[in-house]
Design goal:
Length: about 180
């Protein structure tokens, strides 16, 4: 597939981070991922058929939230205000699940990192099952069906806009969602 054609497809998400240097938020965010991992383990024990029902999600890796959260922080550290993610890459599936359980909140056509209010095994199970049903005949998942996506061009425009916005205004906007 021609790369220009592929980039016109809306498969990108733009994620805003907290204010620069907000170590407390980032620490709590990572700890919440560890809590979600424990809640998922408990849910797998409670519902023994769940792992089989979400087997398509574990084709390349074991479902775990801490690695995806760590990768998100790595991406954020490159620019400190926002980062982008192509849902076609290896972390796209986990972004959708993390968004469904409260690690990302939609603001217009972009997302903001948030700390989930309640991390429950049943919520995680529902998020995993919602993603699993997007699997097509070729056994490909379609996380882009479940979240608001941008084309590469739209993404670049928004990213430039956010980078020019004073961080205090950008972070203040988070309280209005």
């Amino acid at each position: 597939m021609d790369e220009d054609v592929a980039d016109d497809k809306p498969t990108w998400v733009l994620i805003e981070g907290p204010g620069p240097g907000d170590a407390e938020f980032l620490g709590r965010w990572l700890l919440a991922a560890a809590v979600a991992d424990r809640a998922l383990d408990e849910q797998f024990k409670k519902n023994t058929s769940l792992r089989q029902r979400v087997a398509s999600l574990e084709f390349l890796y074991v479902v775990s939230f801490s690695p995806a959260a760590t990768r998100s922080l790595e991406l954020l550290m490159k620019n400190l205000s926002c980062f982008s993610l192509d849902l076609r890459d290896e972390w796209g599936d986990m972004f959708v699940v993390l968004a469904k359980i409260g690690f990302f909140r939609q603001t217009g056509n972009r997302y903001q990192m948030t700390i989930p209010e309640d991390i429950a095994g049943a919520t995680i199970e529902q998020a995993l099952l919602t993603l699993a049903v997007t699997e097509d005949e070729e056994h490909c998942l379609h996380p882009e069906y479940l979240v608001t996506c941008l084309s590469k061009r739209e993404l670049e425009i928004w990213q430039a806009r956010l980078e020019r916005l004073p961080w205090m205004q950008r972070v203040a906007d988070r309280t209005f969602c």
